[in-house]
Amino acid sequence: MSGLINTFGINWTELKMENSKLESVVIVTDDIAPSFCYYDSKTKMTGLMPIDVLKDSINFCERGGYAATVLYSARISEEHLKLLDGFAHIKVLDIDTLKFCLPDPENDIIIVELGKFQNLDTLQGKKYNIILRMDLEEAKQLPMLIYQYHHYFRRLNVLFKNVGSATESALNQFRIDIEPLKNVIYDLLVSGNAFEFNMVTDRMVLDSVNSCDAGIKHLTIAPNGCFYVCPAFYYEDEDHAVGSLNTGINIPNSHLLTIQYSALCRICDSYQCRRCVFLNKKMTHEVNTPSHQQCVLSHHERNLSGILLQKLQSKHFFSHIKNIPPLYYLDPLDYYQDIVK
């Protein structure tokens, strides 16, 4: 046992999560590291992750056999970079951070805010995994952006930062704004320009729920050395920690994070929905219950995927994929309420 205690006095065996489903860890190297999801990064007390905390984070991953995703900051030090250089991980970088840290096109992830999308031209024709963060009202720009920049995408994930404030009018406008995507994606796919796009192509190939699984399959280590279900909970309130590198991991009622404890999600086939537990908690006060806005957006994406798939199959493309039948509702809660009436 003593052989598994490193120079910082941490017993890595005891720190291993009771939930054996844990597969990976997100390491946030700095408070201002780019956001890859719905939350916003912001300056907090810790700032840049101390070197000893980064060493402990790396040891935790290596001892537990966990894959690692590291969020890089524009002010990360040479000492941090040297330490990370010998550590197998996926880099998550802001588009402006590429000047000092070259990403691997096949594995690493580049974060782009809509206002800097034109900076993708610096990628010099290589295809990368891109996360585009934008507001819901800007979705009307997606068809043109994808048409113009598709040659940079191995995979494109689009995340809408202001889902929580979306009105019914905005949700309906979203449906109208993304409708042209079916023609843009169709033309690209049939002409051999294949890439993954979370809003459209994911649902076409999934046959079960593909949740984020924060707190189940992955956890976050923040700059303060504490564990969080995901980075969003750290930025929301540092007191939302579920343990630390010094004390171990403890997620109260962790079973509630699973699909088995979400009655609505179990009957839903918008498989591409990420079921973001942070948005769930923030908007419904339950980690396992998505908000009306999340469900409606996911169903608009689902329905668009179904129309595109039908269009492709009519021309004998993707004939092996199961069709996506139309639904009469946009929120599973409506369906559930009909059942219990």
Automatic annotation (TrEMBL):
InterPro entries (alphabetical):
CXXX_matur
**Please, which domain of life does this record's source organism belong to?**
Bacteria
Q: Which NCBIfam families match?
A: CXXX_matur
What is this protein identified as? Answer: CXXX repeat peptide maturase
Ranked from the top, the taxonomy reads:
Bacteria, Pseudomonadati, Bacteroidota, Bacteroidia, Bacteroidales
